[in-house]
What does this fold into?
Amino acid sequence: MTEPTAEETGVALRRTPQQARSKARLARVLTAAERVLIAEGVPALTTTRVAAAAGVSVGSLYQYLPDRDAIIDALAATYFSRLEAVMEEFVRGAATERWSDPVGVLIDAYAGLYRTEQGFRALWFGSGLTDRTRAADREHKIRMADGVRRLLLGLGIAGDPEGLGRACHAAVLAADALAQEAFRRDSEGDTALLDEAKVMLRGYLTALAGRQEQRDGDATGAAPPDGPVPDPAGHPKSPQ
It folds into this structure.
């Protein structure tokens, strides 16, 4: 997957590294910044503290990340990229896979990322997000929703690109809110709340697929299909 551009993610680099050595130095700085974030929290993400943790001069760091906000934005962008890369893997898999429970598979996968991405949790739960990062997060959720849309189309669950995109955006917003609350309650994720999220999203997407079938029938004047059609839980759904 191609990583999002600075405009898409909101990364505020003073300059973009071109040489391999400069790129490696920036990667080392961001790795060190994440360690500081996990161990000491958002307030510790000063250029001085991060430069010391990375073993680089403040002047060297300042070439790319001029202040704490820029460090936060850059860390957030790396997390967005990781989450979107996982979604792209699912989209590619939809061409050949037939999961017994697509909603459950997605939620379990992203819950697993929440468990392992301590920096992501520390950043989102630390009340230190910048306006730029919040705007980038909104764009990130739009890209995630488009991934869900393409996933459902690939699985043959729905076939209305315009309406489906809006519905998938709503589903991503709801799932994200529930996932964040589940991990605020428990660092391993509140299992009961995650299970409720699965129930809610299965019902929502099943209703969406039903609306699409009704629209298709109304548009063509045709009767509902005689054979089973897939539902968002991956089980054949017999026509009424």
